[in-house]
Amino acid sequence: MKFFLKKAPYLLLMSVIPLLGLVYRLLNANAQNATDLITPIDKMIPYMPIFIIPYILWYAYLAGFLVYFCFKDTKVYLKTLLLLSLGELACFVIYFFFQTTVPRPSVEGNDFLTILVKWIYTIDQPYNCFPSIHVQTTFSIMLASLHIKNKHVINHILLHIGGGLIIVSTLFVKQHVIFDMVGSMFLVAFIYGFTFELFSLRVPSKSKAVYVKNK
């Protein structure tokens, strides 16, 4: 119980994620002259509604593994939140100056998977595509997990297989194109080196204060 009470306050820092989501909504508007980055390879990738399941499970994936990181290694958790936040802010800057769009297929039918796809298409306009927030956040979790020691094999498998399915799902449900996916990975790789290598996060044992200090 003492362990939980000691770690729980750090979970409040996850509130930055929904706050960043509000900024995303402001930028997710009908943009004139939005660029289409679709390639011939993207046209060859089939639309597969089954992938809407891992696409939606992204929400649980992100929250679940952040909580896991917090209780497993608070320092890694804090660095991961910094990585996620800086990555999203970088995406927002790109969206503001370089808005892209993705052509969506005509979705017909009333089966469960199609209803889910239609729901996602309704709440998320086909803008804010390059880089992909889905890929950026998922790949951030996957890289950050490399710093978690003594992971259970099941957690390790779920984290990487689940993350991989989420990333490719963005292509199969036609929410993103290959450039969106690759661009996100390059962005995360750059910021990852900055947050995990150039900075040292210290978590005081007798204080709830958290600070960042240059090495």
Automatic annotation (TrEMBL):
Keywords: Membrane, Transmembrane, Transmembrane helix. InterPro entries: PAP2/HPO_sf. This is Phosphatase PAP2 family protein. The lineage of its organism: Bacteria, Bacillati, Bacillota, Bacilli, Bacillales. The chain crosses the membrane at residues 9-27, 47-69, 76-98, 153-173, 185-203. Signal peptide: none annotated.
